[in-house]
Fold this protein.
Amino acid sequence: IKIIASHKIDYLPFDILIEDTLANPHYKDFKYHGLSYNFTYIPNTYVESLLENRIHKKSDSILIFSPDYKNKTIANKLPFNNILGNSLESKQNSLFIKNSNDLTKLYTHSSYKYIHIAAHGIVDYDRVDIIAQYNTRSNYNLYLNDTLIGKDFFNTRALKTDLSVVASCRSGFSLYDYSDGKIGMIRTLYLSGSNAVITTPWRLDDQSSAQILSEFYKRIESGESYSEALWNAKKDFLSNAKDPQLFNPIYWAALSYNGVDSKIEQSKIKNSGIGLVILLVGGMMIYSFFRIKRD
């Protein structure tokens, strides 16, 4: 189901709306709409048409922002998302960014298969001390080991990708402007060059988000569309959950899919290869039939 909501109603997380009410409810007993329907979000039909008609140069590389926060008291470590980041780095042609020095390796207008971000997200009014320390003007920033990067960073580099995954607390946060709509990381990454963005409207649990995203990447590599893979990864997480508290939506429903849906090029290549094999086998059978008939 595609959600195109207006004004502040698009802050509503449709995934966690329930289908019925219970006398003595527990998270595990609710029937959530997000488990029955695959929700995707788009700001308006104009943006949707722009994203659908945008063509990116093919790329097999992945850009990973995954700081380790070693020897830091300002930010807690994210061990599970660090493991996921290292796993993605080992499987792909990748650029791994942890600090300001790594940022110098990132070129403007580069194309990537995915952009994966697993860093602490900071809303300006939450940590005024950090915002003042780095003198940033962005209302939302990502904290690396030794620096902050905000909307201006992505706007100036114009990174091209089909999918950006921002596994950072409140990465779906935005300010509402009556003329421009929601202004935040989702809009920034659209303008920078992403066709789709996965974010969260609230604080993200490190372990559950890493588990869901690990399954998500496996599914898109096997040929599922991006939104379908995220939806199925959430359901897979709950089907394997042994602790009833994990049915609390804060653990499984935090990640939302924004933008147009698509599949990775590898799946198309795979399907094309299968079609070519079928065509060749069919041609050989027809050739053999006519040769036998002629003889």
